[in-house]
Inverse folding.
């Protein structure tokens, strides 16, 4: 590899930025689920925006594809380079400074490579809350969250990433640095380019810093795990909680018993919070600025009523933070558990909340009919109508990756056909990346898809930014 | 057999403690409070003994402000049968706690008292031992395992050298260590049942105990931060530093 001087890039950048040995590059070339493995001439880890700009100038001049990457925790292959091996991975992890926290305006300015958990902690240390929270928060980076418009478990209360970003700094494909780190709640000045970049998955520009919204830290929170008989009961429970605990529900998550079984089997230290296994489980977090005991009392009262009228079968209410963490750990352990369990095809679909029960029944029936060896598993965010449908196949079910990919594509088609019937979305929060680029035209208005192609052409005329992601190669 | 379990309301284990700006103590306003984790283990053990048929009644006692009643409710939700709140807003030191508990024991006449080996707020690790001394009862501290027999109890203790089993004649005091068990979740049906369980209130004055502190806190300060490490260029340099600067070789 030493022979590749990267067409002069080595002379422009400090040697510590460029990784070229197979060993050094390996962690950046495959997605963490092991579904995609790409190749690259180098992995570039810049220390500054200036270096990012230099890299993109060079890439434009040499027509080198650039694959931007954050914490590499994506689920649709959006951060993995392709197999051609002609491009470079641009990993932003060294741009990780938290630049400013403004507790008067409730804003935080941070570089793109900062890890989400560190940003949450910095906000907490300043007595504020950065509400984005998802399973990979210990590894995923702010830039990746913004580029994918990540959702997570608090969307029900605080919205998706889009609603948490006030301003962005980014670098265009030709190396031009664009400053847009405004910390303004109101700013109607022309087209909203910031919103165009949020969710663009590294195909339009490279995000280098962001101004984020902070919130008051709720003084009190309470968590519970409920056993319910069906998804309909979970929707009923959500309606009742929304009525009784107006504005205080931070999370409301649903999990099927099959998924719970996988999670518990994967880690002997985990325990089921409720007394016995049930068909479905709901995870609830409520938070409030008032007193702790009042909140716990309110949650207990609503759940108590639900227990009496049969909406829920049982519930455990965390008596301390350790138990609250243990309850939520079960929910967060899902991706890891599925990865261990065997080859699986997961989906990130959303439908209207009221349609969730019918949608789950229809998907379950369709998968059982078309793919009898697969176990359908469901986990997700009921309040957002965003239920992750996972088809888990037997461990030795496939002879080679190609066989798996073929089946995965057929499973996608099967699930997406049901989604279409319910007028839902094929990607609620994970993005399109590489996994769904081929499906996007079939699920997008043709005129809208043409506009997307036009925007891509405008931002990235040479097609060097994350090629093959979101929009399939023309 | 009747069992008394003692529970203290403390700052939640997961809360980051901050010292008040004036150094007069730690910040307690708007801080999450929970049952002392070691006491939670004590309650769990008590409930398990009841489930095994070894214990017929569990009484949970707490000393503290009105809100300590919530901590007792948690114990009741886990499976204790009734509660006694010894209500006081004063700071109660271990000796005063032990004296109050001795009074409660005199009234309740339990065969076994279980409590945490220490509370995570002051980490005193004194109350169980003092109570044993005041009552003249045998004690099994830092319990890793307990086995109740006929009029006796075997307590396997965590000691510096490993484990040590002591046989105690009942009535006795047991203080719990971390590995004794893993406390259960309070289930909603049990939380609702707990609301109907009796919770009596009394006070140190009613029990005739003087709780005035014997210690005076002069100042509370944060522990010093950890010093940054240094990188050494060679083994020789490391050895040199260990010898000269650290003085450990």
């Amino acid at each position: 590899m030493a022979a590749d001087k990267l067409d002069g890039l080595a002379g422009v950048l400090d040697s510590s930025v460029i990784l070229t040995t197979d060993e050094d590059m390996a962690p950046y070339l495959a997605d963490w689920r092991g579904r995609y493995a790409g190749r690259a001439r180098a992995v570039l880890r810049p220390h500054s925006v200036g270096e990012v700009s230099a890299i993109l100038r060079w890439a434009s001049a040499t027509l080198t594809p650039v694959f931007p990457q954050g914490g590499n925790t994506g689920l649709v292959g959006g951060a993995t380079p392709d197999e051609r091996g002609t491009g470079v991975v641009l990993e932003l992890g060294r741009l990780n400074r938290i630049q400013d926290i403004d507790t008067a305006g409730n804003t935080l300015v941070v570089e793109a490579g900062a890890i989400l958990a560190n940003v949450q902690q910095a906000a907490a240390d300043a007595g504020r809350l950065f509400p984005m929270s998802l399973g990979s928060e210990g590894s995923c980076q702010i830039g990746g969250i913004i580029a994918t418009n990540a959702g997570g478990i608090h969307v029900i209360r605080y919205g998706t990433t889009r609603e948490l970003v006030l301003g962005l700094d980014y670098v265009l494909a030709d190396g031009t640095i664009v400053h847009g780190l405004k910390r303004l709640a109101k700013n109607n000045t022309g087209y909203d380019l910031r919103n165009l970049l949020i969710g663009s998955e590294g195909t339009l520009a490279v995000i280098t810093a962001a101004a984020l919204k902070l919130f008051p830290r709720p003084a009190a929170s309470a968590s519970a795990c409920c056993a319910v008989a069906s998804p309909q009961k979970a929707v009923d429970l959500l309606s009742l909680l929304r009525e009784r605990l107006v504005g205080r529900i931070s999370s409301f998550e649903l999990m099927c018993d099959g998924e719970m079984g996988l999670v518990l089997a994967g880690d002997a230290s985990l325990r089921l919070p409720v007394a016995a296994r049930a068909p479905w489980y709901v995870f609830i977090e409520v938070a409030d600025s008032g007193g702790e005991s009042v909140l716990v009392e309110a949650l207990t009262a609503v759940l108590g009523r639900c227990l009496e009228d049969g909406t829920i079968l049982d519930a455990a209410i965390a008596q301390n933070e350790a138990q609250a963490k243990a309850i939520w750990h079960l929910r967060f352990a899902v991706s890891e558990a599925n990865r261990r369990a065997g080859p699986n095809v997961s989906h990130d679909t959303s439908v209207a909340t009221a349609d969730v029960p019918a949608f789950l029944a229809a998907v379950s029936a369709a998968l059982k009919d078309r793919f009898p060896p697969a176990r359908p598993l469901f986990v997700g965010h009921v309040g957002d109508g965003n239920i992750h449908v996972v088809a888990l196949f037997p461990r030795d079910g496939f002879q080679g990756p190609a066989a798996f990919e073929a089946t995965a594509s057929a499973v996608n088609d099967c699930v997406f056909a049901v989604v279409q019937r319910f007028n839902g979305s094929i990607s609620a929060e994970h993005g399109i990346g590489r996994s769904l680029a081929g499906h996007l035209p079939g699920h997008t208005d043709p005129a809208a898809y043409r506009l997307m192609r036009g925007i891509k052409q405008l931002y990235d005329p040479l097609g060097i930014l994350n090629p093959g992601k979101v929009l399939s190669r023309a | 057999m009747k069992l008394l379990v003692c529970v203290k309301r403390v700052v939640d284990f997961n809360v980051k403690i901050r010292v008040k700006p004036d150094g007069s103590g730690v910040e307690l306003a708007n801080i999450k409070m929970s049952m002392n984790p070691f006491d939670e283990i004590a309650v769990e053990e008590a409930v398990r003994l009841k489930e095994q048929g070894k214990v017929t009644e569990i009484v949970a006692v707490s000393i503290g402000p009105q809100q300590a009643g919530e901590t007792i409710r948690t114990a009741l939700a886990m499976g204790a049968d009734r509660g006694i709140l010894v209500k006081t807003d004063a700071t109660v030191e271990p000796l005063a706690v032990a004296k109050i508990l001795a009074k409660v024991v005199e009234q309740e006449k339990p065969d076994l008292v279980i409590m945490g080996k220490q509370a995570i707020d002051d980490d005193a690790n004194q109350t169980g031992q003092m109570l044993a001394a005041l009552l003249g009862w045998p004690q099994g501290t830092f319990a890793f395992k307990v086995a109740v027999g006929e009029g006796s109890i075997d307590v396997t203790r965590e000691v510096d050298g490993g484990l040590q089993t002591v046989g105690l004649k009942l009535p006795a005091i047991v203080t719990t260590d971390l590995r004794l068990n893993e406390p259960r979740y309070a289930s909603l049906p049990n939380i609702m049942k707990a609301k109907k369980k009796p919770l009596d209130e009394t006070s140190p004055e009613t029990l005739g105990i003087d709780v005035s502190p014997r210690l005076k806190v002069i100042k509370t300060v944060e522990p010093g931060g950890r010093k940054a490490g240094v990188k050494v260029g060679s083994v020789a340099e490391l050895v040199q530093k260990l010898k000269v600067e650290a003085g450990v070789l």
